[in-house]
Amino acid sequence: MHKNPSLLKRNQEHFLQVRVFEHLEFEMPEIYDLTYAIPNGGLRSNKTAGDILAEGLKKGYPDTALDAARGIYHGFRCEIKTNVRTRTENQIEYADKLRAQGYCVVFCYGFEAVIAAFEEYWNLAAGGVMSQFDYRSKK
């Protein structure tokens, strides 16, 4: 990165997600163990894109999943955004489908927002609900 800082600018969501997983691994290992990424974004060749669509990739599925039931939810899905990216129609539709099945789905804008959402979800008491579904980092 220090040799080519323009990579960070072009790949902000990637590096944000890397930062989130690093934080979870070292600061919240009990969450990290049950959390994984869904690699449904990024630039790929046409062949690779076709291959992963054939394997079951779904456009709009959230970036990360935490397979732990908390509150009223079966599990947690998080769509990670930089502060400048917006959600797509596919992402909104998929969030609605997952919520209808009992999953918590949040859209998070920035590192602090992602961590706050994971912490809130993890600490939900039985019967609890999330306070919001859009989390934004303070500027």
Fold blueprint:
Elements: H1 6-10, H2 12-27, H3 29-32, E1 35-37, H4 46-54, E2 64-66, E3 76-81, H5 89-100, E4 104-109, H6 111-122, E5 134-136
Parallel strand pairs: 3-4, 4-5
Antiparallel strand pairs: 1-2, 2-3
Textual characterization of the structure:
This protein has 6 helices and 5 strands; from the N terminus they run H-H-H-E-H-E-E-H-E-H-E. It has helices at 6-10, 12-27, 29-32, 46-54, 89-100, 111-122; strands spanning 35-37, 64-66, 76-81, 104-109, 134-136. Strands 1-2-3-4-5 form a 5-stranded mixed β-sheet, with helices on both faces. Strand 4 (104-109), helix 6 and strand 5 (134-136) form a beta-alpha-beta unit. The model has no long low-confidence stretch (mean pLDDT 90).
Characteristics:
139 residues; 6 helices; alpha/beta; 5-stranded mixed β-sheet
**What is the overall pLDDT average?**
90
Largest sheet: 5 strands, mixed
Q: Helical region count?
A: 6
The N- and C-terminal alpha carbons lie at a distance of 24 Å
Instruction: Give the H and E element order.
Output: HHHEHEEHEHE
Shape: globular
